[in-house]
Predict the structure.
Amino acid sequence: MSIGNYLMQRTLILLKPDCLENKIAGQVIARFESKGYEIIASKMLQLDDDLLREHYSHVADLPFFPEIAAFMSSRPVLALILEGEGVIQGIRDLLGPTDSNAAPAGTIRGDLGTDRMKNVVHASDSDESASAEISRFFKFEEIPS
């Protein structure tokens, strides 16, 4: 749906194990909400090997994948679907670069992350990945129409 120069979009967010372990989920969600993005679905998930292998299929055969899988399954994550105008790029701008060490102050990863993997949040990077990731982590009946 088009609204002005922006599209009403949905994106998948995963608040990663470091976010929950460090008790900063509220701060992260507050930043999303302060930009006008709405949480339309949420749930806690314990990620298993099959789901991680599917989600990280682009790196599942690389030597560092076991480290990613161990980290992402070390405790439950909080999965969210956010909705808003231009939410995909807007969230990526709020997060900053993947590597928290390269993320500027004022971004979520720059302020709260510690490295490339412990970077607080996963977010979809396009309409296509958002659609695939939302359906990967949420059942059809869990997603508002």
